[in-house]
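Quick one: structure for this chain?
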Amino acid sequence: MEMLEVKQITKEYKNGKGIFDCSFKAYENEVTGLIGNNGCGKTTTFRIILGLIKPNFGLVEYQGLALNQFPTKIKGYVPEERSLYRDCLVNEMIALMAHLNGVKRSEVNKLIDKWLDIFGIKPLKYRNLQSLSKGNQQLVQFITAVIYEPKILVMDEPFTGLDVNNKHKLIEVIREYKKERIVLLSSHESELIPSLCDQVIHFKEGRICRE
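Got it. Here's what it folds into:
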């Protein structure tokens, strides 16, 4: 079974906030949820896992090796804030992420149609992103993160802006996507966590609560 291990990571900022001596393991075929109040360290932890920032101490390993030794395309990321090029068409944005992460050109359009169909938004394929609702933008953002099928998927507040139906649809998709993959997510919506996550990591003031 593949495993991602966070080992004693510490990242302290000038204001004294950050994360301190955080360790946990996440496994394939499971969804690992990080929960806690705003500013408790969830996003910082994700950014360290993704290699976007460096810890002051500690490391992240995948299959017993430093995660930064693997190609970046092994990781997919759904950030809390929209990171889409709003003047792009939907298909252009998804295709860009596919091309950047090594998907064969002959496969891209077929994969785009597949994922748009999964969420029932194929009619939006040639729409400008800025014309979409926040919820549909979030679904497109999710698709850009999984179009190249990363082995490690990190999602920071993935349900933001989604209506009830799309939340349940995304939950179904995440449950299916976790097969043979490692999935991590954070969510303020605590009622979604028990039914979705196989393990839950509680953060409080930059530390993991073990009780």
